[in-house]
Amino acid sequence: MGVTRKETRVVDLPECSRCGRCCQYIAFKSHGMSPETTEWLIVRGCFVDGDYLVLEHWCPHLSYDGIATCDLHETKEFPVLCRRYHGHGHFYVPKECVYHPTKKEVQRSLPLDESIS
After folding, report:
1. Contact of 62 with 23, CB cutoff 8 Å
2. Which of 18, 74, 91, 106 is most buried by its number of CB atoms within 10 A?
């Protein structure tokens, strides 16, 4: 009987294009949200995109001059969720992002779980 372990790896992750779209919204997962809350968020300016309610909101730390830059990037104040954003997992990914799952490069780069015996 062999020993089985789980190994997670990410391959061929595309390089971020620095479009800044990930820093121009606040997204709420709509699953499990009451219809009243959904309605309220839409009335307040959110739009529906798949499983998310999205509010356009430009992060105050974002600068854009052809490429996006963040005042907090590479500092200890850089938020954990921003650090974890890589275009897959439980994150809203704008259609313009190179990490959007409809792009072939990203479909190759999702984590691979393998059992090794």
Report:
1. yes
2. 106
